[in-house]
Amino acid sequence: MKKLKLSLMIIGSLLLVFIIITLFNALTLESRQPSPKHFNGTINDDHAINSLSKAIQYKTISYQDRSKMDLAEFDRFITFLKESFPIVHKELELKKVNGHALVYKWSGTDSTKLPIGLTSHYDVVPILEGTEDNWEHPPFSGTVADGKIWGRGTLDDKIGVIGILEAAEHLLKEGYQPSRDIYLMFGHDEEIGGDEGAAMIVSTLNKRGIKFDFVLDEGGAIVENMVPGVNQPVGVVGVSEKGSATAELSIEGSGGHSSQPKNRTNIGRIAGAVAKLEETQFPADLKGPGEDLFEFVAPEMAFSMKYVFANKFVFEPVIEKILLQQPASAALIRTTIAPTIFNAGEQYNALPEKASAIVNLRLMPGDSLEEVKEYIEETIGDDEIKVTIKGSEASGVSDVDSWHFRTIQQSARNVYDDAVIAPYLMFAGSDAKHYNSIAENTFRFLPVQLTSEDLNRMHGTNEHISIENYLNAIRFYMEIIQESNQPLGR
Question: What is the CATH number of the domain that holds 318?
Answer without folding.
Answer: 3.30.70.360
